[in-house]
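Lab notebook, bench 4. Still working through the backlog of constructs that have no structural model yet. Next entry is a single chain of 133 residues. Request: give me the structure tokens for it.
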Amino acid sequence: MASDVPPPEPQASEPPAPDRSAPEPPSAAQPTTAQFVAVQESADFAELRRTYRAFAFPLTIAFIAWYLLYVLLSNYAGGFMGTKLFGNINIALVLGLAQFATTFLIAWIYSRHAARRLDPGAEAIKSRMEADA
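Model written out:
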């Protein structure tokens, strides 16, 4: 809904609205592209990347295999998956709930791994970049 009425003038007790059209001045010097490339080619960054990949890739492959096993068993082993364990609880339900448990377990394991092995190296690289900028 358009209106020809101008916006109200700011009161004396209100601070003036910031000018959104002007860019904010940088708070600190930013690293250059060359510095980012140099860090990317450094041995510390390569070690950080290797540590991440050595953890993430095998765990990802294992989880995908576990998920595909569940899907394949659900499709082709209906008798097995329908086997009752107790009451109305069957193998399919237990394995389906285990998928959720596995997801949370992997997230917890990764957060511990990142805090212990990845974050210190990343923080060291970040500190060096900020000091050089």
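Notes after review: Residues 91 and 97 are 10 Å apart (CA to CA). The mean pLDDT is 86. Flag for follow-up if needed.
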